[in-house]
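hey so u asked for the seq, here:
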Amino acid sequence: MTTLRSRYPQHTWEPVTIGCSGAGVWRLTGSPAYYLKTVENSTELAEEAERLHWLRAQGLPAPEVVELGGDERSSWMVTTAVPGRSLAELGGDDRIWGFREIDALAAITRELHALPVADCPFDRTLDVVVPQALRNAEAGLVDETDFDEHRLGRTAMELFEELEATRPAHEDLVVCHGDLCTPNVLLDPETFAVTGLIDVGRLGVADRYNDLALTARSLGPTSAQRFFDSYGEVPVPERLAFYQLLDEFF
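ran it, structure tokens below
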């Protein structure tokens, strides 16, 4: 971290606590402004950087990767700071959004889901993700204290048994963000244009409900219904439940 600070000596470092990615995140305030994400040594950030490059190449709004590196203790990624505020900030603690914010979220979701699946090099289908969920559970990497409230008190392996028992037989494949919740979508608060999709480490080809389920949970019931109406989907409760359950492992 000392090495990184020496590269941005004119910037003010502010920790970012909104969201729950598990990474360390700082806003580097200066001219220009950046965001820094750090994780313990892994390939995680390199994979996210690939996805950011790809997403920008498709014409969708996302930060530009400025620097990617690491040392014996951690890996890091520095990106440009895209303008705008997250939907989580705009909704406040009460999670109340206007129609224009929800409609903007639905529109960018439709645009993402309309990208050609054959052009996306990242596989997040159930054949890939369910084995990852099992590996995470067996390795003790699933935070059982952070389950959705109605699952608290259960173990990761108990949840995995439920996951296997409720796995859908069919996937409606699109290009998914993978963690499409309100902290990860930035809007211009004046025009309501989406200015950035962030935290795209799980972007890839998956069932559209991989996004829809997490968006619905993040919005809450009232705003979720508006979102589904604007997106153009009648929600299927069983599919929502499965993909919300799957998210517990990541």
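The domain at 85-247 is CATH 3.90.1200.10 (Aminoglycoside 3'-phosphotransferase; Chain: A, domain 2). The two ends are 26 Å apart (CA to CA).
lmk if thats what u needed
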